[in-house]
TrEMBL record:
The lineage of its organism: Bacteria, Pseudomonadati, Pseudomonadota, Alphaproteobacteria, Rhodobacterales. SUPFAM superfamilies: IlvD/EDD N-terminal domain-like, LeuD/IlvD-like. Belongs to the IlvD/Edd family. This is Dihydroxy-acid dehydratase. Its EC number is 4.2.1.9. Residues 359-553 form the Dihydroxy-acid/6-phosphogluconate dehydratase C-terminal domain. It comes from Parasedimentitalea huanghaiensis.
Length: 571
């Protein structure tokens, strides 16, 4: 017998409970020595054919198992809910916290000592980490990895980013519907997540910057054999980590979250990282606030990937990937010291990293864009904040005052956006209500509303859009998101009327509805929330308990952790 482990409370007992735990597991052909006290490693898998981004995780699980066996551990794979943002209605975000509950309770209830999280699609990474952090066993992430570069008509095309471009081109009459449909197959040529710097690759990048995965995990393409090797090495490492007792709470420190914010700015990462990092921080008890994201605002955009730049994740990988970004951040004093899954400091991920393509990963002195990180906006329209991604926005709209055109719901927007008589100009500000966590529900990626047809046919490509929704990490435009409190929770967004003037200043961080306080109070007095869409089940629980976007949209009762061992047996 090696050292007494958590799993020994299942497999090390010599009574009827130990018999039950071991004997039933042996029906899968595991030999006696699998239960000799070696570390039991749970492989928490979000593989699903309905989550195409994660469809390669079955293979990667086998890679992790090889490494676990090699290091003297006992690997056991288990499924958890899988969330495919491209497939789920109303949005996978509605279920991120449900996945987190599934992960948390699975880890807690089973006899495992350490966990490898296999995720990829946007919500699977944060959902798994939130759940794992609330139990706090040694944990490492292995991501799906991005798809190969999209290819169509001899050009590279990027997941999401080119969907938005193509669909606007069809609406503007610049692309045929047949061409639009033909591009589908070229865009998704292999297993893996979006190969733009969408939310999936953003989350993998920030997780690497936090030290929660092995180095190079974020950018290796899903089908690159080196990803299988990385899974193998992760399996080996998690066994050692159990012995070293390195837990998420040792790694996911305040400094690690700051590194995530800084890295997110440098890679031009998704706005969705904000709600996910806030929710993850809430689980480990790190006091991260929306304003902390301003930390990244002066960091230049180094990674020239869509949607803020022009390349794709495969190019980013071949240019050196995250270790290069971390080394550039370190060189300019923007990488905090913090422990990683390897047991050393995050600076070790950066040491010796070489950049193989200076156009794909640019320098601090000559970046893709200066001061590219997310900005937090506040004012009487968003008392608890809103965010904008300047690197994906139009410079001329970053300081702007204009007249609001309001859509009261997503249905209203869809029914009217293409009306030929829609009273909007390029200076108008489109406002969409009812798309926050409680409103839709689930805070979908609809904030980057299409440009009204009458403007797009005049060649207008961007205008200010404001909502309580999120937007795809692959999207672009001058889009103000995550307005808190949301309309459905009675935030001032609910009170905006068509014709009101709104002022946006990205430089001073202001978002103001230019009406008097008296007028605001009068409108509030007659405001009623919409009837809830769901009156039972998980969605009802979600709506009753979800926190606002500025707090990460976790459920109020899931914040924090409980690391106690469950002592009561099932028989
Ligand atoms: C279409 C792109 C998606 C589904 O990945 C999106 O969720 C993102 O934020 O990147």
């Amino acid at each position: 017998m090696i050292k007494k482990r958590r799993s020994s409370a299942w497999y090390g007992k010599h009574d009827k409970d130990g018999f039950i735990h071991r004997s039933w597991m042996k029906n899968q052909g595991f030999p006696d020595h699998a239960f000799d006290g070696r570390p039991v490693i749970g492989i928490c898998n979000t593989w699903s054919e309905l989550t195409p981004c994660n469809s390669g995780l079955r293979d990667l699980a086998e890679g992790v198992k090889r490494g676990v066996w090699e290091a003297g551990g006992f690997p056991v794979e288990f499924p958890v809910m899988s969330l495919g943002e491209t497939q789920m209605k109303p949005t996978a975000m509605l279920f991120r916290n449900l996945l987190a509950m599934d992960v948390e309770e699975s880890i807690r209830a089973y006899g495992i000592d350490g966990v490898v999280l296999l995720g990829g699609c946007d919500k699977t990474t944060p959902g798994q980490l939130m759940g794992a952090a609330s139990v706090d066993l040694p944990t490492i992430v292995v991501s799906s990895g991005p798809m190969l570069n999209g290819k169509w008509k001899g050009k590279d095309i990027g997941s999401g980013t080119d969907v938005w471009k193509f669909s606007e081109a069809v609406r503007a009459g610049e692309m045929t519907l047949q061409d639009f449909m033909n591009a589908e197959s070229g865009m998704s040529r292999s297993k893996g997540v979006c190969m733009t710097m969408g939310t999936a690759s953003t989350m993998a990048s920030v997780v690497e910057a936090m030290g929660m995965s092995l180095p190079t995990n974020a950018a290796l393409p899903a089908v690159d054999s080196r990803r299988m090797a990385l899974a193998h090495l992760t399996g080996k490492r998690i066994v050692e980590m159990v012995d070293e007792d390195i837990k998420p709470s040792d790694i996911m420190t305040r400094e690690a979250f700051e590194n995530a914010i800084l890295a997110n700015a440098a890679v031009g990462g998704s706005t969705n990282a904000v709600v996910h990092l806030l929710a993850m921080a809430g689980r480990v008890g790190v006091d991260l606030a929306l304003d902390d994201f301003e930390l990244g605002s002066e960091i230049p955009l180094l990674v020239n990937c869509m949607p803020s730049g022009k390349y794709l994740m495969e190019d980013f990988c071949y240019a050196g990937g995250m270790p290069v970004v971390l080394s550039k951040l370190a060189k300019h004093g923007h990488l905090r010291s913090t422990k990683t899954v390897l047991g050393g400091d995050i600076h070790a991920y950066a040491d010796g990293a070489e950049c193989y393509n200076d156009d794909v990963i640019q320098s601090f002195d000559s970046p893709v864009k200066p001061a590219a990180g997310l900005r937090v906006l506040r004012g009487n329209l968003a008392p608890r904040g809103a965010i904008i991604k300047p690197s994906a926005a139009s410079d001329h709209l970053l300081e702007h005052e204009g007249e609001a055109y309001v859509f009261d719901s997503i249905e209203d927007m869809k029914a009217n956006i293409d009306r030929d008589d829609l009273p909007v100009t390029a200076d108008s500000i489109l406002v969409l209500k009812g798309c926050g966590p409680k409103g839709y529900p689930g805070m979908p990626e609809v904030g980057n509303m299409p440009i009204p047809r009458r403007l797009i046919t005049q060649g207008i490509k961007d205008m200010i859009r404001i909502s309580d929704a999120r937007m795809s990490g692959t999207a672009f435009g001058t889009v103000i998101l995550h307005v808190s409190p949301e309309a459905q929770a009675g935030g001032p967004l609910a009170l905006v009327k068509t014709g009101d003037r709104i002022r946006v200043s990205t430089s001073t961080g202001a978002l103001e509805l230019l009406i008097s306080d008296t007028e605001m109070d009068a409108r509030r007095a007659s405001w009623q929330p919409d009837e809830p869409h769901y009156t039972r089940g998980y969605a009802k629980m979600y709506v009753d308990h979800v926190l606002q976007a500025d707090k990460g949209a976790d459920l109020d009762f899931l914040v924090g952790k409980d690391t106690r061992l469950v002592t009561r047996e099932s028989h």
